[in-house]
Amino acid sequence: MEGKGLRDQAQGFDEAGCAVLGISFDTPADNKAFRDEHSFPFTLLSDPDKTIGTAYQVLRDPDDAFADYPNRISYLIDTEGTIVKSYEVSDPGGHAIEVLADLSAAKR
Fold it and tell me: Residue 76: enclosing H or E segment and its boundaries?
């Protein structure tokens, strides 16, 4: 699960000055329970009406068996609010390392 990788690399994100936010279509109560269960040090936002999911183009096709879940896409957003890079997360375990490498490269 990509959340665990982000959790396990939290110190690296802190050192890079990067805030990590997660978002799902779940309710705030469900997100709080999930965050607590996995000891996530970052905020999980709720988008049950899929407004943000629509804006960030993470909705699945309505015929998809997992249409109730967003596609696993992450965005690296700079301090001005510009999307610097998007990631289709295919390797949840290595995703945090990839993002940290991109943050490091951006600071050079």
Answer: strand 73-77
